[in-house]
TrEMBL record:
Keywords in alphabetical order: Membrane, Transmembrane, Transmembrane helix, Transport
Main location: membrane
Cellular localisation: Membrane
Membrane topology of the entry: Multi-pass membrane protein
Pfam family, one: MIP
Family (UniProt): Belongs to the MIP/aquaporin (TC 1.A.8) family.
GO cellular component, one term: plasma membrane
Membrane spanning stretches: 37-58, 79-100, 165-186, 198-219, 239-259
Superkingdom: Eukaryota
Family matches, as InterPro entries: Aquaporin-like, Aquaporin_transptr, MIP
CDD domains in the record: MIP
NCBIfam families on file: MIP
Protein name: Aquaporin AQPAe.a
Species: Potamilus streckersoni
Length: 309
C-alpha cells in the first residue's frame, strides 16, 4: 500500500505539471521550448554555485579573529568538518531543487543519467554546462570574501603526493561509483518508500569525504574541482577529476540498470496499481463516496457559519 500511495502522489504531481509543459512543438526542441527545462537548468546553476561556495568555504583555515592557520597539515577535525559540510549542503540543495531539476549538481551524475537514457543528452549537456559555470561563480564569490593569502588554494582537490595519476583516477572512480550507485538505488521511482533521498545521498557524500580526502580530495564532482582549479589557477592533474568520476558514475548507472535493478522485468507501478484495483480482495472506495463526503462537509460548514450569525 505504501507503493500505491507513493504512485498516487507522483501521478498527481505529473498531472499538475502537464498543464505547464504543454504539447511539444517538435522532437528536437521539445525540451528547449519549455520553461520547465530552463528552470531546471537554472536550478542546477544556483544549486552548484551554493554547494561550491559553502563546501569550499569549509576548507579555508581562517580563525574567528581573522588570523590564518597553516593549510599544509590536514588533521582529522578538518576532514570531518569538510565532509559534514559537503554532505549536509548537498542534502540541503537536493531538498531545495530536487523537484525542479532532479538535484544533480554534478556532471558525474548528469552524464551517467544520459548514458542510461534517464534524461536526454541535451539536458545532460545543459546541466553540465550550468553546473560548471555555477560552480565557478560560487568559487569566485568565495574568493571575493576571503583574505588574499588563501586565494592560492580555494578548496583545490589534489592527488596525494605518494600516489600517481592512475591511482588518483582509481580513487575518484571508486568513490564516484559508490555515490552514483547510492543515488540510483535511492531515487528509483519503483521503490515503495517514503524515506528522504536527500538524507541518504548527503550521508554517502560525507562518508566518502571522511575516507577519501587524504587520497584524492574526494571530489567525485568535475564541476566542483573545475571551479577551484580555475579560480585558484592550479591545474595539476586536473584531468583526473573528469576521467575518474565520469567513468565511475557511468559504470554505477549501467550496473544498477542492467544488474542490480530488481524491477527491470517486473510490472511498472501503473500496471501494478491497475492489478491492485482489479484484485477482488481489495475494498475500493467508490467515487460517489467522495461526492457525498464533500457535500456533507459543505453542509456542516454552512451550519457552523449559520450558528455564528
Amino acid at each position: 500500500m505504501e507503493g500505491y500511495f507513493l504512485y498516487i502522489t507522483n501521478k498527481l504531481a505529473k498531472i499538475r505539471s502537464e498543464k505547464e509543459m504543454g504539447e511539444p512543438k517538435g522532437l528536437l526542441f521539445r525540451e528547449v521550448n519549455q520553461w520547465s527545462f530552463w528552470r531546471a537548468v537554472l536550478a542546477e546553476f544556483v544549486g552548484t554555485m551554493l554547494l561550491v561556495f559553502i563546501g569550499c568555504a569549509s576548507t579555508i583555515q581562517l580563525t574567528v579573529d581573522g588570523s590564518a592557520v597553516t593549510q599544509d597539515k590536514l588533521d582529522h577535525t578538518r576532514i570531518i568538518r569538510i565532509g559534514l559540510t559537503f554532505g549536509l549542503m548537498i542534502a540541503t540543495m537536493i531538498n531545495c531543487f530536487g523537484h525542479v531539476s532532479g538535484g544533480h549538481f554534478n556532471p558525474a551524475v548528469s552524464i551517467p543519467m544520459a548514458v542510461i537514457m534517464d534524461i536526454s543528452p541535451l539536458r545532460a549537456l545543459m546541466y553540465t554546462t550550468s553546473q560548471c559555470i555555477g560552480g565557478t561563480v560560487g568559487c569566485l564569490l568565495l574568493k571575493s570574501v576571503t583574505p588574499k593569502e588563501f586565494h592560492i588554494n580555494l578548496g583545490v582537490t589534489g592527488v596525494n603526493s605518494k600516489l600517481n595519476a592512475g591511482q588518483g583516477i582509481g580513487c575518484e572512480c571508486l568513490f564516484t561509483f559508490t555515490l552514483v550507485l547510492c543515488i540510483m538505488c535511492i531515487t528509483d521511482s519503483n521503490r515503495s518508500q517514503f524515506t528522504s533521498p536527500a538524507f541518504g545521498i548527503g550521508l554517502t557524500v560525507s562518508v566518502l569525504h571522511f575516507a577519501g580526502i587524504p587520497f584524492s580530495g574526494a571530489s567525485m564532482n568535475p564541476a566542483r574541482s573545475l571551479a577551484s582549479t580555475v579560480v585558484s589557477n592550479s591545474w595539476n592533474l586536473h584531468w583526473v577529476y573528469w576521467v575518474g568520476p565520469i567513468l565511475g558514475g557511468c559504470a554505477a548507472a549501467l550496473c544498477y540498470k542492467y544488474v542490480f535493478n530488481p524491477y527491470r522485468n517486473t510490472l511498472t507501478m501503473e500496471e501494478a496499481v491497475n492489478e491492485l484495483v482489479r484484485n477482488e480482495d481489495m475494498i475500493l472506495v467508490p467515487k460517489e463516496f467522495f461526492r457525498v463526503a464533500v457535500n456533507q462537509n459543505a453542509s456542516k460548514n454552512v451550519e457552523i457559519m449559520s450558528s455564528h450569525i
